[in-house]
Design a protein that fits this description.
The protein is built from 14 helices and five strands. The longest helix is centred in the C-terminal third of the chain and has 23 residues, at 276-298. A five-stranded parallel sheet has the order 2-3-4-1-5, sandwiched between helices. It has two domains: 13-170, P-loop containing nucleotide triphosphate hydrolases (Rossmann fold), CATH 3.40.50.300; 215-317. The termini are far apart. It has helices spanning 13-24, 42-54, 70-76, 97-108, 129-140, 160-163, 176-186, 191-200, 205-214, 216-229, 235-245, 251-271, 276-298, 303-317, and strands at 31-35, 83-86, 117-122, 146-152, 167-170. The chain is of the alpha/beta class and 322 residues long. Residues 55-57, 65-66, 69, 71-72 line the site of zinc ion.
Length: 322
């Protein structure tokens, strides 16, 4: 993803205005908590915020990163000596106490090229207990020229003592239009594919981009059409569907589409007051589908037969008489 600035970020306008005002007032704050749904751009936002604070051309009149000074260039290249980004290491399951100690040591140093030392923890809910306690010490006595940004989509997991010491910025979910705009900027694909991928992505930009690249959006229209009619077709149609959707290049997308489709049916049963029995039937079928398709992905099951038995059960639940 190209580096974003407060000018290019889509959505989150009130958060941008709030932090711009804080910078203008010379009170950028020592400790920030950015929280809100997964995949809406909290880390992207944090990087843009840090870039303004570090930019050599930023002034009170502009509150803007210039994008061309050495500081901006280093930030975009991920090599600014006054900025550190802490995330869970790939081979680990949590952010460790050693990482937090490194972060605290980094923040206590004098800035090398700017006014601030800035650290981002992404996602802070991945800290283990020891790491969280170590962070607390830094939060209690933040170094003079330090700014710490922690972000998470699971604020409930963080220690209350950590949260209470941070300036909180809440991120809302992005609208469908905003998601479409962001994915369109990232992926060269048809409008229809982007629209359908966004409808499946659960509000998560990275997920939307991945779905779009998988081409799942192109398939969704046909899939929904077939599923809408499945209660009234012959068994031979179900067999043709199974053949089509079990093709190796299509099977992973079928799983995604089915998963989203089952969620829709369950939601529909709940909101249309179809009764507990109907909801139970959909839930149990969805669970079974999840298991059997998951298995078919990893072990050598006949994918066509898996889909066939699945589509037959769906068809019967929708009223088919075979
Ligand atoms: Zn700059």
């Amino acid at each position: 993803m190209p580096f974003q600035t407060f000018e290019t970020i889509v959505g989150h306008n009130s958060n941008i205005a709030g932090l711009r005002a804080a910078i203008k007032a010379d009170k950028p704050g020592h400790s920030h908590l950015f929280y809100g749904p997964k995949g809406v751009g909290k880390a992207t936002f944090a990087l843009a915020f840090a870039q303004i604070l570090l930019c050599k051309e930023n002034s009170k009149n502009t509150i803007k990163s210039c994008g061309v000074c050495t500081s901006c260039q280093k930030m975009v290249a991920g090599q600014h000596p006054d900025f550190i980004n802490i995330a869970m290491r790939e081979d680990k399951t949590r952010i460790s106490v050693d990482q937090i100690r490194d972060l605290s040591a980094f923040l206590s140093l004098t800035p090398m090229e700017s006014q601030w030392k800035i650290a981002l923890i992404d996602d802070a809910a991945q800290m283990n207990a020891q790491a969280a306690n170590a962070l607390l010490k830094t939060l209690e006595e933040p170094p003079e020229q330090s700014i710490l940004i922690i972000n998470t989509y699971r604020p409930g997991v963080l220690l209350p003592t950590i949260k209470s010491r941070c300036i909180k910025t809440r991120f809302s979910g992005l609208s469908q239009d905003e998601l479409i705009e962001i994915v369109t900027n990232e992926v060269d694909s048809s409008n229809e594919n982007i629209k359908q991928a966004v409808a499946l992505c659960g509000g998560d930009v990275a997920n939307g981009i991945q779905l779009c690249e998988s081409g799942v959006g192109e398939e969704r229209g046909l899939f929904l059409q077939e599923m809408a009619a499945i209660g009234g077709v012959d068994l031979s149609v179900v067999c043709t569907m199974s053949e089509y959707w079990s093709k190796p290049e299509r099977f992973a997308n079928s799983m995604l589409l089915l998963k989203a489709w089952f969620q829709e049916q369950i939601r529909g049963s709940v909101s249309n007051n179809k009764g507990a029995e109907s909801i139970r039937e959909w839930l149990s079928l969805a669970k079974w589908a999840d298991e059997v398709m998951g298995e078919a992905m990893v072990v050598n099951l006949n994918k066509r037969l898996v889909l066939e038995s699945l589509f037959i059960r769906v068809a019967r639940l929708c009223g088919a008489k075979f």
